[in-house]
Automatic annotation (TrEMBL):
The active site is at H202 (proton acceptor). Zn(2+) binds at C210, C213, C234, C237. Keywords: Metal-binding, NAD, Transferase, Zinc. Residues 72-353 form the Deacetylase sirtuin-type domain. This is NAD-dependent protein deacetylase. Binds 1 zinc ion per subunit. Its cofactor is Zn(2+). Pfam families: SIR2 (PF02146). Belongs to the sirtuin family. Class I subfamily. Residues 23-36 have a biased composition (Polar residues). It catalyses: N(6)-acetyl-L-lysyl-[protein] + NAD(+) + H2O = 2''-O-acetyl-ADP-D-ribose + nicotinamide + L-lysyl-[protein]; N(6)-tetradecanoyl-L-lysyl-[protein] + NAD(+) + H2O = 2''-O-tetradecanoyl-ADP-D-ribose + nicotinamide + L-lysyl-[protein]; N(6)-hexadecanoyl-L-lysyl-[protein] + NAD(+) + H2O = 2''-O-hexadecanoyl-ADP-D-ribose + nicotinamide + L-lysyl-[protein]. Its EC number is 2.3.1.286. Residues 1-22 have a biased composition (Basic and acidic residues).
């Protein structure tokens, strides 16, 4: 079982930048493509790694025999190819995966990102590093900075985005196998996605528990304390701090995550990844759990999660391959845009444009009315 961590292994050219604008450790910016090609260094590294990892260095992949098949997986390596695939293959087991990018249009900042602005109020706490807020050991010693940050995330009135309702629409149409989210903002629940279709991989603010006696608390209870600026203390044992059930760095992901990924990904017939930079593990590596015939659509402001050339040479084909040269086996499509625009485009092309628009309008009206 793997704990929550940022993916900075196998980085070829530099450490993960610390400004929150993290790039995955792949060739996404093109820089890594320059790994000393001509001077034999690459061969040496490849040989070293393959010996260390006991991997085959042959070009033929033994274990991922992609049949250069009679039939292409996608008719075109673009959004139209995905739309044709959905219409023709009648897929019914779509998995969606989402990160902070689907919630930014709701006004929710990427709270794990030091560049989000949320950290400006925390300077007086002299954090060893910004991420310390999400480290359990630090929290146990000093929970205050976390709750100061949480207070900024809790104002009322965040409404789910077009992307959230697009996922709900997939469910209503009977096409959604499961939605995996990295977000803890509960907007999938607010959008009406049922519990059984939802995996909150990094936990949720929806519930919390006492770190001493494990007593459970709900969001309204925690919210009353946090908004007042007090640290929520357990009313059962009168000692423990009540921590929202979001997953901190170094903590295990929820059991539900581990049990469902085993069954879900292998049967998926389409994977849609939205608004995630795919740098936090083990979430990021889920994209490689689907079968080699399962198309993968990335809707994001930039290309992320791509195959590392070096790892590919030693037989590891993890990550996306958007290279049009691989058209005959191509199944990865990148729609480079913000998530809401991408979801609107996709639904229009599927003929669901009006339906999505009406759903968003009606639901937002309903949420506004509830607040009055
Ligand atoms: Zn307690």
């Amino acid at each position: 079982m793997e704990k929550l961590h940022e993916d900075n292994e196998f980085t070829c050219d530099s450490k993960v930048k610390d400004d929150g604008d993290k790039q995955p450790s792949t060739s996404s910016n093109g820089k890594n493509n320059n790994v000393s090609d001509g001077d034999g260094a690459l061969e040496k590294i490849t040989k070293y790694l393959s010996e260390k990892l006991q991997l085959s260095t042959t070009d033929e992949d033994d274990d991922d025999k992609i049949e250069k098949s009679e039939e292409k997986i996608l008719s075109e390596l673009n959004i139209d190819g995905i739309v044709n695939y959905i219409n023709e293959k009648k897929c019914k087991k779509i998995i969606t995966m989402a990160g902070a990018g689907i919630s930014t249009a709701a006004g929710i900042p990427d709270f794990r990102s030091p560049s989000s602005g949320l950290y400006h109020n925390l300077e007086k706490y002299n954090l060893p590093h910004p991420q310390a807020i999400f480290e359990l050991d630090f929290f146990k010693k000093n929970p205050e900075p976390f709750f100061v940050l949480a207070k900024q995330l809790l104002p009322e009135g965040f409404k789910p985005t077009i992307s959230h309702y697009f996922i709900r629409l997939l469910w209503e149409k009977g096409l959604l196998l499961r939605h995996y989210t990295q977000n803890v903002d509960t907007l999938e629940r607010v959008a009406g996605l049922p519990n059984e279709k939802l995996v909150e991989a990094h936990g949720t603010f929806h519930t919390g528990k006492c770190l001493e006696c494990q007593a459970s608390y709900d969001l309204p209870w925690m919210k009353r304390k946090i908004v007042r600026g007090t640290i929520p203390k357990c009313e059962e044992c009168l000692e423990g701090v009540v921590k929202p059930n979001i997953v901190f760095f170094g903590e295990m992901l929820p059991d539900r995550f581990h049990s469902l990924i085993e069954h879900d990904f292998i049967q998926a017939d389409l994977l849609i990844i939205m608004g995630s930079s795919l740098v936090v593990q083990p979430f990021a590596s889920l994209i490689d759990r689907v079968s080699f015939k399962c198309p993968r659509l990335l809707i994001n402001k930039e290309k992320v999660g791509m195959q590392d050339r070096l790892l590919r040479l030693i037989g590891l084909r993890q990550g996306f391959d958007f290279d049009p040269k691989n058209r005959d086996i191509g199944r990865d499509v990148a729609l480079i845009d913000d998530c809401d625009t991408g979801c609107q485009l996709l639904s229009q092309k599927l003929g669901w444009g009006e339906e999505l628009k009406t759903l968003v309008e009606n639901e937002h009206k309903r949420l506004d009315a509830e607040k009055l």
